[in-house]
Design a protein that fits this description.
The structure is a homodimer.
Chain A: H1 55-79, H2 87-109, H3 116-153, H4 201-229, H5 232-244, H6 259-275, H7 279-282, H8 306-325, H9 331-362, H10 369-404
Helix pairs in contact in A: 1-2, 1-5, 2-3, 2-8, 3-4, 3-5, 3-9, 3-10, 4-10, 6-8, 8-9, 9-10
Chain lengths: 405, 405
């Protein structure tokens, strides 16, 4: 389905595209000139105290994440990953992605402290692992979100979506069983179409279409992930992570380089990207900005979403950098606000992709007008969730700025 | 198209339905027990001073409105109302409706001061006049709103809607020329379909469908209004209004009855109806309440809109009562806020009816899926405008409550 957005932690081809790196004049995320000043003992942020975190702290963090990666991998193999995949296997896949993302982010943000060739070889591989493992979960979550929205839009209370339903054969999803299976718990609905609750004809057909398309996409993602986990490429990554768990390839100056300088640079990149967002509009409720171009020829890709997706990734890098280097005083408050801002951006991404999936489904040949109508309502509904998420981010960010000043 | 909502100033059949009168235990808008206390010299509101407005004030107000009605009627006949109808004719129709609404409201709110039989005979006739004259304008405004939304949703800037376009043959509309006529100003668009700007296929087809349906409805409304204005029923109303312009049938106690008591009762009815609205939800942006049931079997009538429509009418009665009896100190501030609240509720009504028109059009047999999809997006967009209008009303009302305390 919709392709995931470029990850700034993935050095990939060294392009300077606006999504890969929104800052003008730089030649890629690794080329930021500021890290060259790393090693300065000056404290870049007020309110910090104690000995500065350096290469040792970074090494400890990376070793811990590598260990977590290996633990999750072992757990994943033990819990099975095929058609008998269990909730434990999904949990293991999530843990794998989590640690892969953190190692990759550490390599990105603190690159000057690490062996350069090793970093450049490692990071695309970690991005491939977490990206491949994320696809199935994304399909599951998208279907879940769209069916829940269809139920809400139909005013249906007969079939509330239950995220706690038994999970199906998937690697990373939470609930494959959104559409209650015949063997599932007895339905409260008394309509003639119990498998869809009391959705109207158009909504039911739209739901069935999305179910078919996203289940197919999920099945493909599942196969792809299984193949990836069994590939020699993955085994090479796992071997490298196993080495990392005991031995971090630090540079000679790492022991005297203050991590907080590099963490501050990551924060600056985030702040710069946020500053470029249309936050005044976003903070004005019902600005109707997210649905503009909702009927433009290319409804699947909303270019206006890209800067927000980029901020989501930069915010995550900032959060992980804080995890590694420690933040200034008032950590908990800042962390909670970062979390709220990050959750808003996750919602933004999810709603954006769900809206694209609805638009995509509407292009299926020979669908009934009622189906297309329901998909149009659904698309607009999800674009409004996009707008709502921007509002929520603006609110969280505003608090953050006030709190951090 | 969608039927206008019951007018509480129209006594009609004396039912106690929730829309006609939201208060339990009353038997119709004319049966409020409080007016029985009219005539008491006690000032019902703090902060007022000077001699109390009584029957004389009401008589002056009604005479002035009746004179205005006759002036507008004369103007309407002079400017023509057929296929050569001009902007002047539309303006005259608006003035006719405006005065008819005010006379009707005066008869409703201050009924205890007026001859009861005369009131009961007069009010349904005035409601019929303003209702009949309003239909054509409503169709025009609805089409205008929907086409503007389609352009916005298509990200089209090539054909901004220009409300100042020359008006077509209509009685009460502002701009029949939303879809630029071939002889209009040169278009900035260079696409092959200049008559629709750069709308996409689905949006263009949806626009054409709505154009057909609402233009037909407008033409019918135009004919109906013309027939009405030429009917003996209308001439009887005009004759009665002509009598009213010189002679208001006051009761014996009118000279000593304080209008402000009756105006306060009108305000109390408004306040009670507002209190019953889900204002906490409305004040929480992006609550997604207005689109719930957007795909339910009966999408045309949104029962959740009815209390808001009712408040719109009660707010208007309150405003007119203030015009007649005068308000407490701080009038201008209160008036501006009432105006803002009323405008929000007008938007609410317009968006609600436009959403219903989009849903209605989507039921046209044999439309293309792309058309249906665009109508679905449009419906959802207008339902979000409904939600936005509720938010705007909540904000205006909150200010009002703070300001008036």
């Amino acid at each position: 389905m919709a392709q995931r957005h470029p990850d700034p932690t993935d050095p990939g081809p060294r392009t300077t595209g606006p999504v890969a790196d929104p800052r003008p004049g730089t030649v890629g995320p690794l080329a930021d000139p500021r890290p060259a000043s790393a090693g300065s003992p000056a404290d870049p942020r007020p309110g910090t105290a104690g000995s500065a975190p350096t290469g040792d702290t970074l090494a400890g963090y990376l070793r811990a994440q590598a260990t977590e990666f290996l633990r999750a991998l072992r757990l994943h193999r033990e819990t099975g990953s095929g058609a008998n995949g269990s909730e434990g296997s999904a949990e293991a896949a999530r843990a794998l992605r989590r640690s892969a993302r953190r190692i990759s982010a550490g390599l990105h943000t603190f690159q000057p402290l690490l062996d350069s060739d090793w970093c450049e070889a490692m990071r695309p591989e970690l991005a491939w692992v977490s990206g491949t493992l994320a696809m199935e979960h994304a399909c599951t979550a998208r279907l879940e979100r769209l069916l829940a929205a269809l139920h809400r839009l139909s005013g249906s209370t007969a079939f509330p979506v239950r995220p706690g339903l038994p999970a199906g054969p998937h690697l990373g999803g939470r609930a494959a069983g959104v559409v209650p299976a015949p063997a599932g718990p007895p339905a409260r609905s008394t309509t003639a179409a119990p498998e869809r609750g009391n959705l109207t004809v158009g909504a039911a057909k739209a739901g069935a279409l999305l179910d078919r398309q996203l289940t197919l996409a999920r099945t493909r993602a599942h196969s792809t992930a299984l193949q990836a986990l069994g590939s020699s490429r993955f085994h090479a990554v796992a071997d490298k992570v196993a080495v990392l768990a005991s031995e971090v390839p630090l540079t000679g100056t790492a022991a005297t380089t203050d991590l907080r300088l590099l963490a501050a640079a990551a924060e600056d990149r985030l702040t710069a990207a946020v500053t470029a967002l249309p936050l005044v509009t976003a903070g004005n409720p019902y600005n109707a900005a997210a649905l503009v171009h909702g009927l433009s020829p290319d409804t699947v890709a909303h270019p206006q979403d890209a800067p927000w997706h980029q901020v989501r990734l930069l915010l995550r890098l900032h959060r992980y950098a804080r995890e590694t280097a420690g933040g200034p005083r008032g950590d908990t408050v800042v962390d909670l606000r970062l979390l709220a801002a990050g959750q808003a951006l996750n919602l933004h991404r999810d709603a954006s992709e769900a809206a694209a999936a609805a638009a995509h489904a509407a292009r299926t040949p020979r669908i009934a007008p009622a189906t297309a109508y329901a998909l149009g309502v659904l698309h607009a509904d999800q674009r409004h969730e996009v707008e709502a998420a921007r509002f929520a981010f603006q609110q969280a960010w505003q608090k953050e700025t006030v709190g951090a000043s």
